[in-house]
Amino acid sequence: MKIGTWNVNGIRARHSQVQEWIARERPDVVCLQEIKASSDQVPAALCEMEGYWCYWHGAKGYSGVALHVSIALAVTRPTFTHPAFDYEHRIVIAELPGVTVASVYVPNGGKDFPAKMGFLAALEQFVTGVQADGRPVLICGDLNIARTPMDVHPKERKPRAIGQLPEEREQLERIISRGLVDVGRAREPDNDQMFTWWAPWRNMRERNIGWRLDYFLGSESVYAGVQSCVVQKDVGTSDHAPVMAVFDL
């Protein structure tokens, strides 16, 4: 199963890039975040992509997620759902063969930090429930937290910056401790240049002065089948790069 996740920072601005990426990579599952559009605003060529069951969950100009599943993977349209803690169109879930997949866009926290922490705590409860039911789970998306100092370029490390706060990192560790594996970091434990987001100024992306904010968090049984997990640093003009992973499920 090939799965891609990408915070596109506006699907209307980057619809052609997303189309080209999907056509080139042909992932079985596509998770998008920050689409900034309601379903009726999604460009027609993307709204129902050939070969995919498509689900868009957003509102005009802010937030929003999407989850698309290859028809080759799911013969009938999956049921797309949202847990009770979903707000501002931030999470969509699909039950797929062998795994529960969630496309997630955690609040930044700059305007409402308690809401971010509440969302993360609810995400922990969700993961706990799925794992307790014996269902493998894969959380894909922009979690808006750099897990450790290693996940931030030294020039960007700011102990009191949102996204690097101890309480955020502690909550992310609690989520992971519920039987999940940080796939990218587990694959490359010593890579201190693995970033997925760059501030859009001073050539930060070209200089690779960034943060790692985009993740695959998978159950241990899912991680046991991982074949690759790659940040596609040179793809697109969003301030985030896509991350592509392949699992043998």
Describe this structure in words.
The chain has 249 residues and is of the alpha+beta class. The chain has a single domain (2-243), classed as Deoxyribonuclease I, Chain A, CATH 3.60.10.10. 24% of the residues lie in helices and 28% in strands. The strands form two sheets. It has a six-stranded mixed sheet with strand order 3-4-2-1-12-11. Helix 3 (113-132) links the parallel strand 7 and strand 8 (137-142). The longest helix has 20 residues, at 113-132. It is globular. The model has no long low-confidence stretch (mean pLDDT 96).
Features:
249 residues, alpha+beta, Deoxyribonuclease I, Chain A, 6-stranded mixed beta sheet, 6 helices, 24% helix, globular
What would you say about this model in short?
With 249 residues, the protein is α+β, with helices and mostly antiparallel strands. It contains 6 helices and 12 strands. The chain has a single domain (2-243), classed as Deoxyribonuclease I, Chain A, CATH 3.60.10.
